[in-house]
Amino acid sequence: MGSERYNFNMKQALVAGGIAGTAVDVALFPLDTLKTRLQSKSGFKASGGFRGIYSGLTSAVIGSSPGASAFFVTYEYMKKKLGSIFPDSKYLPFIHMIAASGGEVACIVRVPTEVVKQRMQAKQYSTTSSALKTIFNQEGLNGFYRGYFSTVIREIPFTCFQFPLYEYLKIVVAKKTDRNYIEPWEAAICGSVAGGTAGAVTTPLDVIKTRIMLSAKGQTIHNYSGTINTFNRILHEEGVKALFSGIGPRVIWISIGGSIFLGVYEKAKKTLCEYDILA
């Protein structure tokens, strides 16, 4: 038994993904800012505290739509192709893990905007233009991809938890309601549970990614480079507790975010299919 009500194409997945990505990033930006500041080596208060919690919003909006679109097009395409190769339902978790991991790797477009956004959230820059100019002058193009590998290392375990659990919950709900599909609001609940669970488990990877992205070339005390090196340094200097900095806002943010992201995606996909938009 599946959980899809409509047959949709990749153009519809592209548009629905863009709408979902923008919706969740704008709605939950303040929580994301607080989480970033809690994870900063400089400390919550020094990084801005509760002031200017919308710093970096422009950068987030620029990256959210193409990033989410790239993810969902890749995810849906790989899920369909792998499903035809491995039709047995016992392979579904494997299929969802591989498809979601492929989607995350495709989100390379999001990394530069994430770097700018997080540095502005930590009050390193006051405007998007000054952030772009300073990062480029001091670090070159590589500066905009600082933390790319730590981002991928964080996102792949996260998505390997989130999407198999999300797809499993969708199937369970469909069976419980005697339907072969679920409604967008039901998908939102499934997304919330799956996202919150995955977010809690992968918090240490998120802390490592944040520390690397907040580091700028030329820094000494707060400079971090390399995932393993950053992990060992945090563990040695600050202890295990620091690896779970910001876990509260992260779990709340991702639980709500999973609900909005996947609920809006399913709703947008349903609307596009019902009205034959981009069919």
List keywords for this structure.
70% helix; 11 helices; transmembrane; MCP; mainly alpha; Pet8p; transmembrane helix; single chain; globular; mitochondrion inner membrane; Mitochondrial carrier fold; 279 residues
Topology:
Blueprint: H1 10-27, H2 29-39, H3 57-85, H4 92-105, H5 111-121, H6 128-139, H7 148-176, H8 184-201, H9 203-214, H10 227-238, H11 247-274
Structure description:
With 279 residues, the protein is mostly helical. The protein has a single domain, classed as Mitochondrial carrier fold, CATH 1.50.40. The chain is 70% helix and 0% strand. Helix 4 (92-105) packs antiparallel against helix 7 (148-176), helix 5 crosses helix 6 (128-139) and helix 8 runs antiparallel to helix 11 (247-274). The mean pLDDT is 90. This is Pet8p. One of its GO terms (cellular component) is mitochondrial inner membrane. InterPro entries: MCP (IPR002067), MCP_dom_sf (IPR023395), MCP_transmembrane (IPR018108). One of its GO terms (biological process) is transmembrane transport. Solcar repeats lie at residues 8-81, 90-172, 186-271.
Q: Would you report the number of β strands?
A: 0
Mean pLDDT: 90
- Main sheet? none
What would you report as the Rg, rounded to the nearest angstrom? Answer: 19 Å
According to CATH, what is the topology?
Mitochondrial carrier fold
| Residues in helix, % | 55-70%
What amount of the residues lies in strands?
under 5%
Cα end-to-end separation: 25 Å
CATH architectural label: Alpha/alpha barrel
Number of helices: 11
What structural class do the secondary elements suggest? Answer: mainly alpha
Organism: Rhizophagus irregularis (strain DAOM 197198w) (Glomus intraradices)
Solcar repeats: 8-81, 90-172, 186-271
GO biological process, one term: transmembrane transport
Transmembrane segments: 12-31, 52-74
